[in-house]
Inverse folding.
């Protein structure tokens, strides 16, 4: 038996009739004006990070950042967090955990997130972190991945490929804090852009780029029952990539690289004039070709296979 | 440098001015009639469980049970949950995760807990689970560990030592589903007793027995600024223990054994007549000897050192 994470989650959803599973956050009623957003993300040593590639502070930052990115992807505001960490005894005896919390709190302060609980556990030999964040959004205003509409323009915040490029540099031995490495080690959740989009009220659907553009766009298309057409020339490649990698690798990292934690969102064409801002790039459009992601390169269009990150 | 989990948490609390950390659950405002309760518990393979001692179903049950017990300890009702699991690839390819969810859902159904999210991750070689549960309680009615009063009678639900006895039998090779092993592998969270106590409205303070009576009572005393005096003859020893262990070991497991997930609570003496029910046992009283736990045996009183479970 072999199956992907996604197949597994789909199976659990239908087997146990789960209606709140499947977007970046669960949406729970809080009171008559506000919904609660909840997300959990597990980071495992030697799968999601390596201790010789990062610092405890970066790791604490990233653990919170990935969950804040989920809140951003729903158009919400992060409010509180719980942090569960498992560490082996040899690390417990060092300043590792203190430094991890220092990195965590530096980011938490930036977005006024309060630590309200969690767990500290011993592990046999590896570090594991589960980051849980609770957020809020005006009732009914969470921006889903399942509500993209054919004809929508597809937009992206920031640039792509930086985190994947940083990972490749780390793999080949780089240990500086160059822009690409920082993008991998200390990603910035897009809460400010999310908040702006929420105020504009024009995003029909949204997701964060955690697995990679091709995979995450596919999640939007499958959840929304739509397709999409990307324009290769419009994809915003991270400015530092070409200095380190050949053009085809740069393009592959932009299309398939994970962990940039930028936001992908779709907007009715009548509203795109609101998005004439430097941090937003229009990269394609939503089509009615259900489940098909197409890529136009130099006027030729081909169907794209998803190649982003999957644990299984 | 060496420090306990508790010292670490105290340090983080004061360093970052955390006011919601330190009880079984965090209490967060939901709306004007209800507070939200949040808890997270991490279970790590070969620290908190062993795969050759348990079944995936028991493990799924226990992961949820430990968090439900935290909700019970606050007098709340469990409402929803997120489950983060990390598994190595070889287990992913078996029915392990399906069976774990089966065990989880069987308990969730019993208490109408809805799965709303979580995470699935790959690990290098060990299973790790983070169980997150959200509950509710009428505003201001959460039962804290910090509000025991000198003169209160100390009560306990059920019996103690069963889970510790089960662990010892597992360690010595037992693999049946005898009562003691079940108490260790498939603990029952005390939500029904908690609900009864909440309705009676008489518990001044409450905690669940996760680390062991001597440790958990110490948590109550330290948080409340009180002491306590236990009466050895009154401690409710699990009925199956004496058949397997000598008397001194039975007593040690009752006093210091963890993971029974019974509730310890304190009640003003004027209210104890309400508790004349078979599931409740009066085991001692709260004193004004701040931080001192005393044990009376055969009329002699000695000061007790905490010996319950600590990860570090």
């Amino acid at each position: 038996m072999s199956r992907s994470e996604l197949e597994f989650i789909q199976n659990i959803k239908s087997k146990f009739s789960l209606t709140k599973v499947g977007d970046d956050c669960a949406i729970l009623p809080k009171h008559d004006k506000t919904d609660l957003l909840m997300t959990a993300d597990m980071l495992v040593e030697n799968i999601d990070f390596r201790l010789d590639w990062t610092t405890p502070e970066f790791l604490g930052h990233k653990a919170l950042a990935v969950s804040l990115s989920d809140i951003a992807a729903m158009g919400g505001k992060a409010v509180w967090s719980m942090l569960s960490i498992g560490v082996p005894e040899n690390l417990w005896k060092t300043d590792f955990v203190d430094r991890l919390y220092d990195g965590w709190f530096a980011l938490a302060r930036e977005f006024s997130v309060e630590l309200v609980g969690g767990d500290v556990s011993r592990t046999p030999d590896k570090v594991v972190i589960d980051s849980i964040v609770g957020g809020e959004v005006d009732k009914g205003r969470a921006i889903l991945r399942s509500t993209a509409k054919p004809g929508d323009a597809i937009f992206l915040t920031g640039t792509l490929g930086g985190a994947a490029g940083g990972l490749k540099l780390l793999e080949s031995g780089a240990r500086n804090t160059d822009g690409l490495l920082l993008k991998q080690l200390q990603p910035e959740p897009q809460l400010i852009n999310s908040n702006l989009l929420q105020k504009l009220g024009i995003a029909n659907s949204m997701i964060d780029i955690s697995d990679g553009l091709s995979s995450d766009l596919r999640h939007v298309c499958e959840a929304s029952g739509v397709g999409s057409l990307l324009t290769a020339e419009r994809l915003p490649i991270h400015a530092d990539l070409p200095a380190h990698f050949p053009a085809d690798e740069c393009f592959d990292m932009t299309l398939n690289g994970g962990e940039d934690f930028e936001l992908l969102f779709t907007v009715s064409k009548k509203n795109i004039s609101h998005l004439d801002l430097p941090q937003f790039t229009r990269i394609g459009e939503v089509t009615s070709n259900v489940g098909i992601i197409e890529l136009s390169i130099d006027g030729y269009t081909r169907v794209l296979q998803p190649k982003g990150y999957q644990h299984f």
Remarks:
- Chain B touches chain A through 59 residues (CB under 8 Å).
